[in-house]
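Example A, followed by Example B.
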Amino acid sequence: MATEKQPTIIKKYANRRLYHTGTSTYVTLEDLAGMVRQGDDFVVYDAKSGEDITRSVLTQIIFEQENKEGQNLLPVTVLRQLIRFYGDSMQALVPSYLEFSMNNLSQEQQKLRDQMTTAFGSGAFQAMEEQVRKNMSFFTEAMRMFSPFPQGGAPGASAPKAPSQTEEAGDLDALKRQMADMQAKLDKLANK
């Protein structure tokens, strides 16, 4: 008969400190996020009342992660849709649907990584991340050009130096080539 490992108990004190009972040390939300990434289960109890507050702590971890620059997993449209489900007749179905969807994504995650590595090589994810960074930088610069006020936010503030037209054209051409290459690789992958 197999025995499952019991979740680690974390106690949250009134001073907002989190105490890991397994290691007898104080931990941070970042430490708990690392435990989740490693697959370590834990339960968080309020030290005074004994109430299980795991859900609120996990939500707080998500909030902290979403506030880090470049780490947004939840688009605004998804957040709005989730809020709309509260109090709706479909509210009871949402948790099981989300759990099912996340389980499927987790199961398919390694297959996707393997396929990407096969199609694009071992540096595929780094190249894609770099391309996303470049795209976001390009998008940010484009949005600044359409901003009614300079970066200072007020009329009369000095505007940042705009890149020359030749630099913009070269960047745009490079971006177009990279996008065409990626599309060709995706088409090749889709045909396998």
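Example B, a separate protein, is given below in the same form.
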Amino acid sequence: MNNALTPRHTLLALGVVAVWGTNFVVIKLALGHLPPLLFATLRFTFAAFPGVFLLRRPKVPIGQLALYGILIGVGQFGLLFIAMSGRISPGLASLVVQSQVFFTIGLALLLTRERLRAVQVVALVLAAAGIAVIGVNSGGTTTVAGVALVLGAALAWGCGNLVQRRAVGVDMLAYVVWASLFAVPPLFLLSLTIEGWPAIVAGVARADATTWGAIVWQAIGNTMFGYGAWGFLLTRYPAATVAPWSMLVPVFGMGTAAWWLAEPLPLWKLGAGALVLSGLALNLLWPRFTRLWLTAEP
């Protein structure tokens, strides 16, 4: 695998994180009308249909598709949407969920039985300190439960990244579409059990054109393009090269939330963001800095 993204793939990664970052505002708008698990169900229904009738199933084990679909559909977005239903603000959710970088790299190291380097420990401590600042300042639109739910979503995303990396040489759009099919049944059953049929009916009745537009954007822009392109990159580059690009998601997320939703940006929130992003940046840039340093030595 190559260690550095090509210019074209760099633009692709930037496009993905821009879509993912601005998407948190879209999520918040849709959650104003739909229960979170129903919203997740509709998102993955639109991502799966009619695509499964148009795209051939990728040549990977059916269990791998199912596992990825459940991890991303139920684990990541089920938990994220629940958290964003009054438990955490969109900007902070976009920040905390980027802990998936450490989950992705940590799980990859665990599977390869490598040890964490000292700089990775420092990076993790910085990011954890930022999340701790968010926890200490929880209240109002952000709660400890909300932070915990988003951390759970980040863990599921990290696991999903590792599952998707095993799908080398397949059509990633077809992979994401077919995996979405396996997310729908458990999400609908959870919605029916937890939210109830009356809430489902009421949510669909309240949904307006903006809500349906948000669902379609979730399916096409966020899921099919975002996760298809992300999976394309993960199968061609090391996880440690691709995953840190998501550190730009909260830049778009917090900026868009402040602009569109008038989400405040007090000093503690900016400080927490700086700590988390510093940890992510250190983890990303230190190996490159070390290589340059060694290369420059006489």
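On Example B: The chain has a mean pLDDT of 88.
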